[in-house]
Amino acid sequence: MTQHPPEIDRYIRRQLPDLHGKHVLDVGCGRGGIGFLLRTQPGGDAAHILGVDVHEPYLEFCARFGLYDELIHGDAATLRFGQFDVVTACEVVEHIQADKSAALLDRLEQIAKERIIVSTPNGDNRRGPVGGVESEAHISIWTPSWFKRRGYQVRGVGSRWCRFDQAGRIKMALWYVTTPLAIRFPWFADTLVASKEGHEGSR
User: Which of 103, 134, 161, 180, CA to CA, is 20 to 30 A from 81?
Assistant: First the structure.
């Protein structure tokens, strides 16, 4: 996982329940940024957290810090999982072909009992591998309207015209200044945070 915009953590935290005794799946766990967020969420120290990633060195990195109770090496688009209370897939879907990502979200929505949370760049932010890691390439495009049609609540951070991972000092300042606008109008955003009640929470 490359560095993600830190402002998304605020909106992820707001969507998470108390995690005490919960089973949590972190798809595309990367170097454990979301794992750390989950552990520091109320009840996170008493949650059972499973991390999955296709890039084995990331899992080795996570193992050194003990953020996850279990780690699985594999392609999330092909793995099969049981039921979890909370599922996160942050900075994942853009790394997978659109049809496979949609199928992955279908499955994740089916196994998420309370909440599913997804984050991804807004609009076209395609790129090649980063640091020689093929799985870091961005190969699919996602929009707020796509998530809204599926029943997600969507928020945005930053501006798509000054991408977080490409910005210099001036553009980075604009990124932060424009975030309040992106919250209300996610089509404007650099990064989307989409959340949806799980199949038990929506009853």
Answer: 134
**CB-CB neighbours of 31 under 10 Å:** 19
Domain boundaries of the chain, sorted by first residue: 7-156+191-197
Confidence grade of residue 118 (pLDDT, cut at 50, 70, 90):
very high
pLDDT, tens digit (0-9, with 9 covering 90-100), for 185-198: 999 999 999 999 99
- CATH H superfamily, domain 7-156+191-197: Vaccinia Virus protein VP39 (3.40.50.150)
Q: What is the pTM of this model?
A: 0.89
Closest CA to 158 of 197, 130, 115, 123: 123
